[in-house]
């Protein structure tokens, strides 16, 4: 499966415990999304196009209307990256 660099970055944040917070105006359509790390930082280059690609590929999922999290398929698709917190 082809996953772009920005999609891969978002999946890595989600695999480490992050979430995608979504907002809806009137109706079921999602109008804005924010990718938040487990520490509370916001991923700057995350937007609706990346979110829609991840959702279309079924790499993220929402349960009971809660925040979107990485799915099992997403965990299997994410590539290993060095965690740059220690160096």
UniProtKB/TrEMBL annotation:
InterPro entries assigned to the protein according to its UniProt record, in alphabetical order: YjhX_toxin (IPR018654)
One family name in Pfam for this protein: YjhX_toxin
Protein family: Belongs to the UPF0386 family.
Protein name: UPF0386 protein C5F48_23520
């Amino acid at each position: 499966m082809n996953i772009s660099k920005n999609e891969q970055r978002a999946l890595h944040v989600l695999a480490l415990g992050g979430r995608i917070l979504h907002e809806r105006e009137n109706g079921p359509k999602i109008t804005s999304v924010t990718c938040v790390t487990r520490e509370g930082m916001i991923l700057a280059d995350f937007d609706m196009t990346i979110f829609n690609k991840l959702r279309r590929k079924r790499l993220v999922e929402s349960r009971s209307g809660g925040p979107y999290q990485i799915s099992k398929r997403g965990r299997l698709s994410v590539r290993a990256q060095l965690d740059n917190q220690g160096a």
